Amino acid sequence: MMIASIISLFQKVNIEEKMQNAPNKQYEIGVVIGTYLPFIVLIIIAYTTYFYFKRKEKNKTE
């Protein structure tokens, strides 16, 4: 976890700057999607993993 936080410090991306320098609206949409998509994917993975193991534990006790 510490390594991830160190890497994120080096990879600071200024989204506002990218939006101001965007050549058109499609680029802005791509920046927004590229910024939020990894978080959405991680949330989906966490959600499915949680319910998979919850269901597995429920079936194990029966």
Protein traits:
mainly alpha; single chain; 3 helices
Write the layout of secondary structure elements.
Layout (H helix, E strand, L loop, with lengths): L1 H9 L4 H6 L4 H37 L1
Describe this structure in words.
The chain has 62 residues and is mostly helical. The protein has three helices and no strands. The protein has helices at residues 2-10, 15-20, 25-61. The chain is elongated, with a radius of gyration of 18 Å. The two termini are 36 Å apart. The model has no long low-confidence stretch (mean pLDDT 79).
- Low-confidence segments, given as residue ranges, are none
Structural class based on helices, strands and sheet pairing: mainly alpha
Shape: elongated
The total strand number stands at 0
Q: Whole-number average pLDDT?
A: 79
DSSP helical segment count:
3
H and E order: HHH
Rg value: 18 Å
Tell me the fraction of residues in β-strands, as a range.
Answer: under 5%
Alpha-carbon distance between the two ends: 36 Å
Q: Please bin the fraction of helical residues.
A: over 70%
How does the major sheet shape up?
Answer: none
Q: What is the structure about, briefly put?
A:
With 62 residues, this protein is mostly helical. The protein has three helices and no strands.
